[in-house]
Amino acid sequence: MSLDGGKLTSIDHNGDRVYIIPAEVRGFFRRHRDWSQILLLVIFLVLPWTKINEHQTVLLDIPNREFALFGILLRAHDAPLLFFVLGMLALGLAFATSIWGRIWCGWACPQTVFIDAVYRRIEMWVEGNYIQRRKLRDNPLTPKAFLTKSIKWFLFVLVSSLIAHSFIAYFVGASNLLAMMGHPPSENWSYFGLVVFFTAITLFDFAWFREQFCVIMCPYGRIQSVLLDHSSMAVVYDSARGEPRKGISTNDKKTGDCVNCNRCVQVCPTGIDIRNGLQMDCIACTSCIDACDEIMSKVNKPQGLIAYNTLDGSKLTLKKPRAILYMLAIFGLFFGLAYALSTRSSIHATLLRAPGLPYSFVKDEQNINKILNHFKLHIQNQGGQPSEYTIFLSPESLSKNIQLIVAQNPIRLEAGAAQEWHFFLRFDENILSAGSLKIQLGIYDLKDPKIETEFKEITLIGPKNP
Ligand code: SF4
Ligand code: SF4
């Protein structure tokens, strides 16, 4: 944690918020961050409005227990598959951190991307550069300042609402959201409330709370110290070259390359001084690198006094035990996911004995005594297309003169739909052995012959001593 007399840089001595306004910066990293942020913004905002295989590209429809991930449709009973996906994401992040440090925070986290590429830019367009914005922050509120701030907050509300809509589309489905938007809020109070709630949260976090979230609340930021090691990359200040900085008196009057211009502190969105060493508040945004490089060029010194480098100055390597272990675990999860998906059936069927009498005595069309068992099959089409299912008995069962009695066979089920399918089995009492007999019921998808027939074991029961 960055310390300034033992406190956070975004909190003053009275415990009040210090609203940090970082100076603008130009340079190699800023240029590349601009492009990557545009790309990520497009992905974050557009992804829920796109489709693969007729399904929303990413959909986490929790009320309907339906999840779509890049063309693969998963349902509630596929939840264990999410274990592989989430495991790969978590380990991927741990792997990236162990090699490249907090690259996620500075370059890809939606928190940083939205604040930096959207909210801070709006602030700049409306209120001016960082000097003008700091004046506006520190001076008394005049009518002109009030108008400027009102315009800025109006735009903040507008973009927060747009972001909230895109965010909610991940959970309720873009087409559902569009349909709801075409109706008055009174018809969908719960979703309307959700949009308002997320607009408020987005506004609070991105417009006001900002990088304080990274410093105070983000759990990933808190566990950096265990994910990094001496050969991980980070934004580091070369103190051997920079110190003693200009203006700090030394006996031999020799100074290092740091001209003590404080520019690296001015551009830092968390308000820290990277010259104090690696700190948990550093989100690796690389602004201080660009800022210092600019200064070094001006004073005719080599760039790189602050650089993106390994912590111990060694060569970047992927060949270290923790990185290899992460990679092996990721590969293991990947193959586990691939296997689980390839063996996953599009039919989910549960066979149960119908409630009531376990068996009953009936007569068939020839007035011969028979036993009747009643079953119900809960069947769900967990594929992405409508299907037509049929049930049948094995030739062995038919040879024992067991009859399948069902009102409708086959049945059609839309993608994701489920139905309870009642059927009866009628048979001679004398085929039972000690009151029971195990047979197989086949379930087959007529629309997709590639899908293997699923067999369920059924126990026929009747009187124990025929
Ligand atoms: S110290 Fe540098 S890299 Fe770290 S947050 Fe501040 S400006 Fe960004
Ligand atoms: S920007 Fe560079 S020269 Fe200026 S204070 Fe920071 S480290 Fe020193």
Q: How many strands appear in the DSSP assignment? A: 16
Distance N terminus to C terminus? 81 Å
Radius of gyration, in Å, reads 33 Å
Q: List the total number of helices.
A: 16
Assign the CATH architecture of the domain at 347-461.
Sandwich
How much of the polypeptide forms β-strand, as a percent range?
Answer: 15-25%
Name given to the CATH homologous superfamily of the domain at 347-461: Immunoglobulins
Structural class label? alpha+beta
Provide the residue-averaged pLDDT. 90
Query: What percentage of residues falls in helices of 4 or more residues?
Result: 40-55%
* Large-scale geometry: elongated
Which features would summarize this protein structure in a list?
Immunoglobulin-like; 4-stranded antiparallel β-sheet; 5-stranded antiparallel β-sheet; single chain; 466 residues; alpha+beta; 42% helix; binds iron/sulfur cluster; 16 strands; disordered N terminus; elongated; 16 helices
Describe the protein in words:
The structure is a single chain. With 466 residues, the protein is α+β, with helices and mostly antiparallel strands. The protein has a domain at 347-461: Immunoglobulin-like. The protein has helices spanning 28-46, 79-100, 103-108, 110-127, 130-138, 143-172, 174-181, 189-209, 212-217, 219-222, 224-227, 239-242, 263-266, 287-298, 321-342, 395-399, and strands at 51-52, 55-56, 58-61, 66-69, 72-75, 233-237, 306-310, 347-353, 360-363, 369-381, 387-393, 403-405, 411-413, 418-427, 436-445, 454-461. Strands 8, 9, 10, 12 and 14 form a 5-stranded antiparallel sheet that branches. Helix 1 (28-46) crosses helix 4 and helix 6 crosses helix 8 (189-209). Mean pLDDT is 90; it is low at 1-5. The site of one iron/sulfur cluster has 15 residues, from helix 13 and helix 14.
